[in-house]
Amino acid sequence: MFRVLLFIVLAFYANTAKSEQTWHIVTENFPPYFSEELPNNGWLFEITKLALKSQNINTEIEFTSWNRSLNLLEKQKKQLFLVLFIQSKEAKFLYIHAH
Length: 99
Hints:
The chain has helices spanning 2-14, 43-53, 66-74; strands spanning 21-27, 57-63, 80-87, 90-97. The protein contains three helices and four strands. Helices cover 33% and strands 30% of the residues. The radius of gyration is 13 Å and the shape is globular. The chain is an alpha/beta fold. It has one domain (2-10, 23-37, 44-97).
């Protein structure tokens, strides 16, 4: 289920992508999904990175606090906020896009 949601969201935003651009992603550490201490910054970031790469979009990631992440989006210094919400037994992924 989450792969379908991930694909739909990324496909929607990747449609506006031009060739070889870079999206600056911001998030907070949330192991085991994404963290600067995990190999390849975590499996969820790796999936995101591969999905964007298939659309000729490079990625750079910065790990910081929730408040700073929102602030960077508002100032349009970052293009994507990678967030994970867990409710009961199912995980929901949300990508907040600033543009």
